[in-house]
Amino acid sequence: MRVLRTVAALRKELAPARRRGLRVALVPTMGALHDGHLSLISQAREDCDVVVVSLFVNPAQFNERSDLERYPRDESRDRELAAASGADVLFAPSAEEVYPAGFATSVDVLGVSERLEGESRGAEHFRGVATIVAKLLGMALPDVAYFGQKDAQQVVVIRRLVADLNLPVAIEALPTVREPDGLAMSSRNALLSEVERERARSLSAALEAATRLAAAGERSADALLASGREVLEGAGVELDYLALVDPDTLEPVELLERPALLAVAARVGQVRLIDNAILAPAVSQTSKGKAIQTCSA
Ligand code: PAF
Q: Which of 179, 220, 262, 291 is the most buried if burial means most Cβ atoms within 10 Å?
């Protein structure tokens, strides 16, 4: 695996593959790689000929300085993990390479950026994400870019960005990878104390409670959200939001009539965590019966 630090070196490395019409994958990361990232790299390895993993802790998307300072960094560990999962190139540019003197452009994806995380963290967060993702896509010019569904809103924002700017790249979102007890893998989990780690489990437990209720036939968003909130309140975490929204527009949903995104954000001590699940309405016995009759008719 090659480690490259400049856009010029990355372009030079990828030029022969591009001339031969090979498929290039990009897995953008901020490092502190965990099994979620590794699943993206492995999938990219399966789907494409050349796999580039980018590693850049993007200061522009951190709305809290302390969060940026605390963010876990260990490049040599990341290098080993990326290579072992099949990356061909680790692109790890400096902040000066990404934002040289005079840099003056930012990308704002309106609407979908403004809800949930946008409301909590302010417009800078997704402006920072959209700008760096647009830049990384411009730097590597991949055929496919891979993201984790754990950052569901980020995926929605990036899909909007790619569609609106006519960027010739396919966006793949892969399922959240979880610890055995359900906690979604996140680079920030490394910052949790033992007690906080236990409390953090309540995020996925809240999603599970609402999922069970939906599977039992409950369709009211109020009731579904109340079941999740009860779990979180009992766990001693500071809830930021728990919301049931349309998975494409992120508009609030009042009645679960089609699959909807249940998204949660909470602070566990100093660490802010997010998670989500897709809730689907239960298929009623009557409609099941009808479906069977239609099939056998
Ligand atoms: O999901 C992340 O790790 C980051 O938001 C991304 C997409 C690498 C942009 O910095």
A: 262
CATH code (residue 147): 3.40.50.620
- Give residue 222's domain range: 187-279
Q: What is the pLDDT of residues 120-131, one digit of tens each?
A: 999 999 999 999
Probe ligand 1: pick from 33, 40, 52, 58, max atoms within 8 Å of CB? 58
Same domain, 209 and 161: no
Assigned domain for 286 exists: no
Tell me the whole-structure pTM to 2 decimals.
0.94
Number of domains in the chain: 2
Mutate to test the pocket of ligand 1, among 132, 162, 275 (most ligand atoms within 8 A of CB): 132
